[in-house]
Write the structure tokens for this entry.
Amino acid sequence: YPLGVSKTVRKGHTYYVASCCFYGKQKQLGQFKTVEEAAECYKKAKLNYITELANQEKDPRVQQALRNLW
């Protein structure tokens, strides 16, 4: 499965769970019917998180390095 996505089965239904670590804490982003939906959710959440971290950083070199991650 893609990074940030895991598969779970509950009551006979299969779901794909997107989760991510923000500020050192694991957070579930949601349950989805397809791997692609879960992966897209993870990607958007991670991009928002990295952008937020970059905006908080004072050193422009670190800002650029964070933005280059994604």
Notes: The radius of gyration is 15 Å. DSSP finds two helices and three strands in the chain.
